[in-house]
Amino acid sequence: MGYQVLARKYRPQRFADVAGQDHVTRTLMNALAQNRIAHGYIFSGHRGIGKTTIARIVAMALNCRTEIGTATRPTPEPCGVCDSCVEIRQGNAVDVIEIDAATNRGIDEIRELREAARYSPARDRYKIYILDEAHQITEAAFNALLKTLEEPPAHVIFMMATTEPENIPQTIRSRCQHFSFHAVKFDDILAQLRMIAGQEQVEAEDAALALLAEAGDGSMRDALSIMDQAIASAPIEAGRPVLSGAQIRELMGAVPNAVFERLLEAVAAGQSAELMEQLNLLVNAGHSPSSLARQMVRYLRNALMAKLGGEQTELLQISGDERARATRTALLFSEEELTRNLQIVLRTFDDLNYRQEQRFHLELGLLKLIHAQRLLPMEELLSGVAAGTAANPGTRAAAPSSSSRATPAPVRPATPPAATSPASVASPFGPSGGGWNTGAKMEAGIRADAGTAPVATMERNLSATAPAAAPAIASEASGNSFMGSSPFPASASPASGYGSTATLTEGALAKAPEAAALPIGTPSMEALRQAIGSALVAGGHTSAAQLLGSGPWIMDGASLRIEVPGIGKKMLSLTVNAAAEKMIRNELQRLGAPTRFLVVPGEGSAATNPAAAPVSVPLEGSVQQAALSNPLVQKAQEIFKAEVRSVVDLRTDEPNASKR
Q: Which residues contact 654 (CB under 8 A, 6 or more apart)?
């Protein structure tokens, strides 16, 4: 006899050998022991899980010539040695007829079956018809079989196997006992593969067997077919095939899940360039975009299940290492974010089926994952506004009222910015640049009689606590158009240097000299704050400069930790975006400081600095002035504490419509 594939060679011949279908085998064995035999059975479920196999075992048990309770056959299990059992196992039994319903699906074939069913068995006790893929039978053919199935002869038993039971008419299903088979569990497939590897004298790593079991996707036959192929391609060592995880992945064209873990880490960090570089490596290595999207869908599903049920949940049918990896990925996202990411990748996978430029669509889908991280739920936005108003009742009162902004007066700079020296500009931080002066007015190059920015006050003047050299360092490092003033109040920042993780209190600031615990040639923390804030303002990231200047800066080892109080994670990522992070990193590198930094939400409310933003005064009669005087715009600015950076006039029906 020629070679038999593993799926046929190790096909179960007894109920006890069937893996993962205990609810079916237990019921059938009890029915055989009690002689409660039905005339029609429907076996439905996933492919390759034992439907036709159990139908054959039932046929052997019904026609077995050995009596139940004897030494050869103590249980309803077939003996496997009598002529009937041997013939059924070999597929040449006269009274057990297997019909492929996919090709014999017409009414003529069913009429022939109905005529043949009237005759008694040639030798065995029952005449058994096994209809495989029964859902392929036409409706007319089912109607022709209906009367015979309802009142069959006593010697006839019908067994129908199908993967789509919903396509079988209800009139047929109501006349049969329906057994719904389960997908085989990962552990059951793994145990069967390990047993077969031992029988076949195959050296297999646990990781390789786990990959095979996972590739089976609940189907024992699929897992055995892939294992057969893997053994054929495995290298031979000491006369025995050796299966490794890398060889299995190469055979199946699969990507290690560690790659998808790195991809989702880049998504969580908002690193678009890193994400595209990783994808480029995968595509250049020969992996198809459709296969990558399908594997990422599976990985995201596992991460979502790990988020819902934990690492040891039954929802995860994967190995222990993969469970841990999925759990690590789940910690990066919330349940809502994982659900949204899975939906985006599923939609991308569907798009790839009918798109020509698959790579471009896969890149677009992965970029959507990063963009989706920046979305702020409406309920979170509204609750944040309400909480901020309740926590800081004086914030809105300190802002300019709607009436004062309704008709802004035209304001001209007193002197051109280029002619204004940093030394002549009044600093909002007082003479020493350290703290906020009570009642200090921010001129910022604008005439006092023409209108000024809102005045910010504090109860204490902490200007004496800041280093004396801070203004000079800030002026030298900034080079921005904000007249040399920095958006960071020095009183809000720690004065500690590198290697210190403790923030200094108000009393300790005066006692701790600037050079304490600082390496020679390293800029102070205050110098970093001033330089980075000035660079952000010069680069157009005023909002980011205000946020970063409102909280403490702490050196933790070789990395800089910036805490921003009074803001959520989503809003923080929107304000301190990738461009602002790049600017901070470049400024740290220019100053010779460590370029590793972390911006996190802190506790408490943010201390805003109205002098941080450059004063933008619209010209009278301009489109910008008309927009700023609109009540709806003013209300939005008041609620969301927003700023209008540019106004674009899209009106085309007016001859003098302008764009600014």
A: none
**What kind and span of H or E run contains 236?**
strand 236-237
Identify the pLDDT of residue 168. 92
CA atoms within 13 A on the CB side of 147: 6
Q: CA 294 to CA 281: how far, in whole Å?
A: 17
Cα dist from 63 to 1, 19, 372, whole Å? 27, 23, 63
Rounded Cα distance, 485 and 487, in Å: 7
Residue 470 confidence (pLDDT) above 50: no
Of 430, 527, 531, the C-alpha closest to 469 is 527
Residue type, 335: E
C-alpha span between 334 and 321 (Å, rounded): 22
**What CA–CA distance (Å, rounded) separates 58 from 50?**
12
CB-based contacts of 378, cutoff 8 Å, min separation 6: none
The pLDDT value recorded for residue 410 is 41
pTM above 0.70, yes or no: no
Q: How far apart are CA 138 and CA 263, in angstroms?
A: 48
- Domain 186-252 carries which CATH code? 1.10.8.60
On whether the CB atoms of residues 87 and 117 are closer than 8 A, the answer is no
Percent of the chain exceeding pLDDT 70 equals 72
CATH classification for the domain delimited by 6-180, as one of 3.30.70.260, 3.40.50.300, 1.20.1250.20, 3.30.70.100:
3.40.50.300
- pLDDT tens figures, 579-630: 888 888 888 888 877 778 888 887 654 444 443 344 445 555 666 777 778 8
Break the chain down into helix, strand, coil percent, rounded to 5. 50, 10, 40
Q: Which residue has the tokens 């789940």?
A: 330
Confidence at residue 310, expressed as pLDDT on a 0 to 100 scale:
87
- For residues 485 and 217, the model is more confident at 217
For residue 50 the two structure tokens come to: 């034992």
Closest by Cα among 361, 318, 360, 369 to 342: 369
Residue 567 CB neighbour total at 10 angstroms? 20
**Are 322 and 245 in contact, with CB atoms under 8 Å apart?**
no
Identify any residues that bridge with 160 across adjacent strands, giving them in sequence order.
Answer: 42, 131
Q: What is the pLDDT of residues 505-520, one digit of tens each?
A: 333 333 333 333 434 5
pLDDT at 163 over 80: yes
- C-alpha–C-alpha distance, residues 102 and 562, integer Å: 67
| For the chain, domain boundaries | 6-180, 186-252, 257-373, 411-612
Categorize the per-residue pLDDT at 104 as very low, low, confident or very high, splitting at 50, 70 and 90. Answer: confident
Residue indicated by tokens 């065995």: 124
Q: How far apart are CA 324 and CA 592, in angstroms?
A: 39
Residue 491 in contact with residue 466, Cβ under 8 Å? yes
Token pair in block for residue 351: 């798009």
CATH of 257-373, one of 1.20.272.10, 1.20.1310.10, 3.30.2130.10, 1.20.1250.20: 1.20.272.10
User: In this predicted structure, what is the pLDDT of residue 179?
Assistant: 95
The answer to whether 6 and 224 have CB atoms below 8 angstroms apart is yes
- Written as six digits, the tokens of 369 are 């994952």
